[in-house]
Amino acid sequence: MTIHAIGLMSGTSLDGLDICLAKFQRKDQWSFQIIKAETISYPKEWEDKLKNAIYANTEQLLELNSEYGFYLGKLVDNFIHQYDIKDISLISSHGHTIFHQPHKKFTLQIGDGRAIKIATNLPTIYDFRTQDVLMGGNGAPLVPIGDELLFSEYDACLNLGGFSNISLKVNNERIAFDIVPVNIVLNKLAQKFNKDFDKNGDLAKEGKINNELLHTLNSLDFYNKSHPKSLGVEWCHKNIFPLFNSFATLDILATFTEHIAQQISNVINQYTLKNILFTGGGTYNQYLIEKIKSKTTGEIVIPESQIIDYKEALIFAFMGILRFNQEINVLASATGSARDHSSGIIA
Is 147-306 the same fold as 2-140+310-346? Predict the structure, then answer.
């Protein structure tokens, strides 16, 4: 069985839309090949719309859901024509997360898949998280199914995106959980210096670690919770950003980078992991990676840039294929839902 699919991922750090076209084959087990992938930066207009959507009223949000769906469809249609793509079976879209409150039984990723289908004339799978939340799960993390079936040669897969999450095998069961906020915080701090992100951690290097702030951060309740557990933007606004008010921004960057490294290394050491695949934009933060390496004995594997940048979009393409075939694409051991299930709406 061979199938070509496009995966779409828009992360909380608002750096753009990841589009990944990949070929998947199943013989004894699944394999993949990324054929073409790129990130399309959001124009200022869309960056502002997505950033401010959390404050929108219901009518505005419904309008944005449709508008963003058509926008995604247009971007995909352009991508298909630009690279003269002929063989494609489906599109699988994560959408852009506006709310994620699984304890209240809701999560919202906008970008109506029906609009994407109308714009591209291709079957589109979307809204992967809601069903899991309704089944008592966290609705996250979802990528462990891809880690299990596409990246099983690693002890663990760790993503450094807006948040850091990890998936690993424990007692022959795939578990996964969010570890700590990463770029959602670092990028916001870097913006105070008119930079989109802290390249290589250069700004953090200039600051001094504030031990009082570091202790407060490390003492947050979330870090003592057992898995499964997940983080959201709202959690950062409530628990992280208010702590920064009385400190210099460079020192906050230095301290928060140290905080990230400590929380990630705690997890790696707790499970005595031997080789860990690192992906996501934060992998390019050399200062952060050096800090993590210095605190762990496990081998930190940094793959080729295509995997670093597009692993999540790749796995969402894969999840769409599984859903289209009515196969399991969400693992209860990772999300905490009632059972493994096949999630996503097919448009």
Answer: yes
Q: What is the mean pLDDT of the chain?
A: 96
Alpha-carbon gap, residue 261 to 289, rounded angstroms: 8
Measure Cα distances from 105 to 92, 102, 108, 169 in Å: 23, 5, 10, 27
Q: Give the pLDDT score at 14.
A: 83
180-215 pLDDT, tens digit each: 999 999 999 999 999 989 999 999 999 999 999 999
Question: What CA–CA distances, in Å, run from 132 to 118, 141, 222, 340?
Answer: 26, 10, 21, 9
Q: What is the largest CA-CA distance in the chain?
A: 58
At the second CATH level, the architecture of 147-306 is 2-Layer Sandwich (3.30)
Report the C-alpha gap between 53 and 56 in whole angstroms. Answer: 5
Q: What is the pLDDT of residues 61-92, one digit of tens each?
A: 999 999 999 999 999 999 999 999 999 999 99
Give the pair of three-digit tokens for residue 38. Answer: 């790129």
Q: For residue range 212-222, what is the model confidence (pLDDT) as tens digits?
A: 999 999 999 99
pLDDT tens, residue by residue, 266-282? 999 999 999 999 999 99
How many angstroms from the chain centroid is the CA of residue 172? 24
- pLDDT score of 229: 86
Strands (E), the chain: 2-10, 17-26, 30-40, 90-93, 96-101, 106-110, 124-126, 156-160, 163-170, 173-181, 275-279, 299-301, 345-346
Quick one: pLDDT at residue 232? 86
Q: Which CATH architecture has domain 2-140+310-346?
A: 2-Layer Sandwich (3.30)
**Strands 163-170 and 173-181: what pairing?**
antiparallel
* Cβ-Cβ contacts under 8 Å for 242 (sequence gap 6 or more): none
90, two tokens = 């489906």
Q: Where are the domains of the chain?
A: 2-140+310-346, 147-306
Strand partners, 7: 20, 92
**CA–CA dist 21, 321 (Å, integer):** 12
Helix (H, G, I), strand (E, B) or coil at 208: coil
